[in-house]
Amino acid sequence: MVDVLLGLQWGDEGKGKIVDYFAGKYDVIARFQGGPNAGHTLYVDGQKVVLHTIPSGVFHKNTINLIGNGVVLDPVTFKKECDKITALGVDLKKNLFIAERTHIIVPSHRALDKASELSKGAEKIGSTLKGIGPAYMDKTGRNGLRVGDVLRSDFNERYAKLKEKHQHLLAGYDFSAEIKAEIAKDIAEWEAEFFDAVTYLKQMNIVNGEYFINEKLQAGKKILAEGAQGSMLDVDFGTYPFVTSSSTISAGVCSGLGVAPKWIKEVIGVTKAYCTRVGSGPFPTELHDATGEKLRAEGNEFGATTGRPRRCGWIDLVALNYTCMLSGVTQLVMTKSDVLDAFDEVYACTAYEIDGQQTKAMPYQLNETDVKPVWEQHKGWSDETAAKSKHFNELPAEMKLFVKAVENYLQVPVKFVSNGPGRDQILEQENA
To answer: What are the binding positions for Mg(2+) in this chain (predicted)?
Structure first.
């Protein structure tokens, strides 16, 4: 069977660490969507490692890792990532495989991303400028290059044709001559590194991903599908247009790996004990005060990929209930609970007030809706007991009450609570 692990908020929920924790129980870890804007942070022998494309099971030597067709892969980022992992003693030729249908990000995709954001001015969506949106646009527009194409003799011709298309698009922007020259220079500088990375990519294990994964299923192997970004960034159901370009919910597993729905078993949703968001877009529970700053400082809330400070607020149970419904979440993992040790009171949003009426439903266009959060106050635990606890039952009573309130609202058990960055700081609630 395939278990799914995905983020339920706007990303940065700590999925990488949780996948790493579970990885030893699975034969295969597979990424099913997203691009290198995802940063999954792991701590390996005390050393911080950030993965952008490679699945988070890569440090388990008996685990196979698959980059699925739903991912968009930047060969340059991928090679840099591989170099770092190889330096840590991991033999990627043995445990990393790439689906041949995975689409490739080329230098002019990054240029288009930059141009698009520049043209929007104050209305920019907060793209990480990695070229991910334009790569997915070429995928749906049936113009894209795929990993399998790097093995073809006419790859350079295919690349040139796609680049020419992009140059026509770039010419349509009403930019100054200086900006146009800067973008052209960017592409030229990125290309040498790109083709070097493509040569490296050719040496990797490129497989027919859908047959590869289904053969593992037929052989009785246990598979964990790893999501990137968060459910509220889903291209269909997220806070559109401030979303990513792929399906970040459990339905994306089927199309992103080539497996049928009948194979999906557990859906493990990851949520912080509070809430964060990077970039632009609506965020109903955001705190623009000293409490928000304190959450950022206590949680070290800066992007793993970009270093950008994250926007911070209390947990949004309306949004969580929505994403649990969309993905059929069967169990929850609550991360960074120890961050709340520093607060005398903690809060949860239990409803939205819109035009004087309370609702627990997600509005159609959240960024154009005036939302006032309805708060439920909880007594804080205000000590370091949570961070020091080695078992769930050792957690402060107030914290366990907070966890229970989340469970009761969502009607989904909180199976695990993470109270620190280490693998040994994930506590299982055995009766959940």
So the answer is: 12, 39
Catalytic residue from among 20, 40, 234, 341: 40
Given a cut of 90, whether residue 356 has pLDDT beyond it is yes
Annotated catalytic residue 388? no
- Type of residue at 278: V
Answer yes or no: is pLDDT of 424 > 90. Answer: no
Measured distance CA(267)–CA(249) in Å, rounded: 10
Q: Is the distance from CB of 58 to CB of 95 less than 8 angstroms?
A: yes
- Sequence-distant (≥ 6) Cβ neighbours of residue 181 within 8 angstroms: none
Q: In angstroms, what CA-CA distances link 293 with 4, 225, 276, 288, 324? A: 33, 34, 12, 8, 28
Instruction: Judge whether 409 and 317 are in contact, CB under 8 Å.
Output: yes
- Cα–Cα distances (Å) from 251 to 135, 223, 267, 345, 387, in that order, read 21, 16, 11, 37, 35
pLDDT at 387 over 90: no
- Percent helix / strand / coil, the chain, rounded to 5: 40, 20, 35
63 carries a ligand binding annotation: no
Catalytic pick among 3, 12, 74, 234: 12
Query: Is 153 marked within a binding site?
Result: no
Is 38 annotated as a binding-site member? Answer: yes
Can you tell me the distance from the alpha carbon of 291 to that of 201, in angstroms, rounded to the nearest whole number?
Answer: 46
| Annotated binding residue 172 | no
103, 114, 130, 139: the active-site residue:
139
Q: Give the model's pLDDT for residue 123.
A: 67
Q: Is 17 annotated as a binding residue?
A: yes
Q: What is the residue type of 383?
A: D
Is-catalytic flag, 168? no
Instruction: Give the per-residue pLDDT at 383.
Output: 72
Whose tokens are 């907060």? That residue is 126
Consult the annotation and say whether 276 binds a ligand: no
Asked if the model's pLDDT at residue 306 lies above 70, the reply is no
What average pLDDT does the segment 212-216 reach? 98
Cα dist from 330 to 10, 158, 266, whole Å: 19, 44, 6
Q: Which residue has the tokens 């909880």?
A: 378
Burial class (CB in 10 A: 0-12, 13-18, 19+), 381: buried
Q: Are 331 and 6 in contact (CB under 8 A)?
A: no
Torsional class of 285: left (φ above 0), alpha (ψ -120 to 50), beta (otherwise): alpha
- Is 12 a residue of the active site? yes
- Rg of the chain in Å (alpha carbons): 22
| Higher per-residue confidence, 48 vs 108 | 108
